[in-house]
Amino acid sequence: LVEASIPEHLREVWKKYSATGFENKDEFEREFVRHVETTLARSLYNCDDLAAYSGTALAFRDRLIIEWNKTQQRQTMVDQKRVYYLSLEFLMGRALDNAMLNVGKKETAKEGLEELGFRIEDVINQEHDAALGNGGLGRLAACFLDSMATLNYPAWGYGLRYRYGIFKQEIIDGYQVEIPDYWLDFNPWEFPRHDITVDIQFYGQSVRQENEDGSITYNWHGGEIVQAVAYDVPIPGYSTETTNNLRLWSSKASSGEFDFQKFNAGEYELAVSDQQRAETISAVLYPNDNLERGKELRLKQQYFWCAASLYDIVRRFKKTKRAWSEFPDQVAIQLNDTHPTLAIVELQRILVDLEGLEWDEAWKIVVETFGYTNHTVLPEALEKWSVPLMQHLLPRHLQIIYDINLFFLQQVERKFPNERELLARVSIIEESQPKMVRMAYLAIIGSHKVNGVAELHSDLIKSTIFKDFVKIYGPDKFTNVTNGITPRRWLHQANPRLSKLIASKLGSYDFLTDLTLLDGIERYIDDKEFRTEWADIKTENKKRLAKHIKDTTGYTINPTSLFDVQVKRIHEYKRQQLNIFGVIHRYLKIKSMTPEERKKLVPRVSIFGGKAAPGYWMAKTIIHLINKVGQVVNNDTDVGDLLKVIFIEDYNVSKAEIIVPASDISEHISTAGTEASGTSNMKFVLNGGLIIGTCDGANIEITREITESNIFLFGNLAEDVETLRETHRYKGFTLDEDLAKVFESIRSGTFGDPKAFESLIASITDHGDYYLVSDDFKSYIQTQALVDEDFLKQDEWIAKSITSVARMGFFSTDRVINEYAESIWNVEPLVVE
Ligand code: F58
């Protein structure tokens, strides 16, 4: 249809000159030089590594955008159901290496760059991470994009184009200092679409209107308009032509009459400040993980992004001229946590207020369209917005929320008459001072499926925070989709040698698109040469990390030591404090030993990394303690190589790509029942690292897959946590003896001014030890001793490593995406012929 509307001779000319991008080395060099000379206005004489990065990225970007265009045309022609993944965070990391590997032209570029006088690693290392996320939730969204494209699903991501990503972390005198991350200086991966804009309204009033036919409509009048501008980021699938789209919205002042009036009236400064206020909406990523603080600007961000995305989705749907009832057959929208829940309300508003549908008819469409993924049971992370704030910012939406609530509560009352308490418990509106809108409840009520991200977590949400909703809707509305990771980035890209070794045994790289094929390597477990190479690769990776540590911290670490890694956001529930107390315990033990005894020890490097939310005092105290312990231990000549403590600054995706392949053991030690899934646990095991962990999140399913003999589990179970906490609160409890000694040494000033750590210790000794550090300490220490023992038996250790990798097939996001597609979205891939 589209084609027929263009006269043939025009099509001919167009086809003749249609861009193709490079195919071979010579063409790559031509494109590279062309971009350096014309796009960057540089020359042979001032082309440094950064310019070489830009030239390479632009050459690849051309290829991506050509495939992107074709993919979008194909998807529009076929006109089948699309998925829209709404996420406030996409933690993409670097794009160039990934684009090279997915497109399959890394070797071509490498050779071309060499001829032009550059080393590909240096070029890749020039790129700034796209750090538009906090942690697991944002990185999951990025892995999903990779898998959706690789599996050829017609899928778009929608997010915000933050001017500042997650802050950069510096450690100064052992303290975390936050530096703004202005990353947009030069970003070759985005395409501004100045022609794709949406006006977004805030504030004003909702005005009731009685129509001539007696019907009532509501009009949202007045207030302020901010413009959303689309920026598109092409997402290439691995080894496929499909290149999907990530659309990020940027805010700017509306070009409407507003500014001009002010401008003409001589209020130049006001016009400018309007401009700045508008731009503030997409200025910063909120740096909290697992905490919601209820700031007005955050709610503005959420509505701005939801409204722009929905406008876009609806516009696309309307072009097909279908009946509204077909909307859910064409559109699936997945909510990454509750942050996009306003999209539910916005769609209902569009259908009822703007398109004139009946309430019930509209609501049916809404519920069939949305799915909601929950990522936490921590009460402080469950989003609530104050009713007065919502009333002020989004008056019409608040009315709609009240109506949704009313109809929902009526339905509950019909099903469970005389259960007044139930009604109060499940009401979207919490009757507090001020009243609050419970976003998770709204998300559940407005979606047809709700899922958790690992089995234990999905069970827990059904038995705790959403229990009443299971009673109301029945269990089928709730489901589990266990998280995963993309093996392209987290094996092939981060650990190319391991990927190559595996491919050499399996005969191809097919395991990268069917990770279950990894089980084929278990056959080689007794192959001596294979094991040696496996071990060599780990050593190489450890040397690379040791070099990074030397370059960034000045500390020399021995690559034959056991590398023990815990890298993730710093949070009390993740229990980095348990780890560092364990390290202190080890240090005290070493100090008390004779030189003879010391000889028997396994040298260990404890490596930490992760950011604390800027306002999270306790997390910052934990970082401080780790750094202070490092200073003391690393300079103690009694200890030497037996123990080193390293804090890697500014942990991010590109650092993870160096750290993950280099671990012997990594720590996933959250208090049972608190970590919804965890995904770095999967990354480490897939790279041949063993893990020590609690029975929490996806650790449980990892254990099921790789079997208990290949993982170091310890600690109390989720089902006992509640009772243990009660014990602490009401009956007093005895602190673990060894932990008491650790506290003594801190209090005595071994690691600097003890006052700095008083509150951390008191949280355990005096304030109920909510995260059960003391209860799990003994079992943690004992299990760490087992780790040492097992590490000495290198042969067995390597066998465990190989077996574990072989059994990780389940944890690919390809499997995850297929599950969502089948059980929640009801979409099919669009295979390219
Ligand atoms: C994480 N959540 C979970 N939230 O903690 C982790 O267990 C899980 O593996 C991962 O999601 C993926 O499912 C998480 O990262 C956040 O960072 C939010 C950011 C916005 C404010 C609230 C927390």
From TrEMBL:
| Catalysed reactions listed for this entry | [(1->4)-alpha-D-glucosyl](n) + phosphate = [(1->4)-alpha-D-glucosyl](n-1) + alpha-D-glucose 1-phosphate
The UniProt entry's GO biological process terms, in alphabetical order, are:
glycogen catabolic process
EC number(s) from the headed UniProt entry: 2.4.1.1
Which Pfam families does the record cross-reference, listed alphabetically? Phosphorylase (PF00343)
- Record keywords, A-Z: Allosteric enzyme, Carbohydrate metabolism, Glycosyltransferase, Pyridoxal phosphate, Transferase
Q: Which cofactor does it need?
A: pyridoxal 5'-phosphate
Record's GO cellular component, any one? cytoplasm
GO MF, one annotated term: pyridoxal phosphate binding
Which positions does the record annotate as the modified residue N6-(pyridoxal phosphate)lysine? K683
NCBIfam families, per this entry?
P_ylase
What does this chain do? Answer: Allosteric enzyme that catalyzes the rate-limiting step in glycogen catabolism, the phosphorolytic cleavage of glycogen to produce glucose-1-phosphate, and plays a central role in maintaining cellular and organismal glucose homeostasis.
What family is this?
Answer: Belongs to the glycogen phosphorylase family.
In Swiss-Prot or TrEMBL terms, this protein is called: Alpha-1,4 glucan phosphorylase
Q: What is the lineage of its organism?
A: Eukaryota, Fungi, Dikarya, Ascomycota, Pezizomycotina
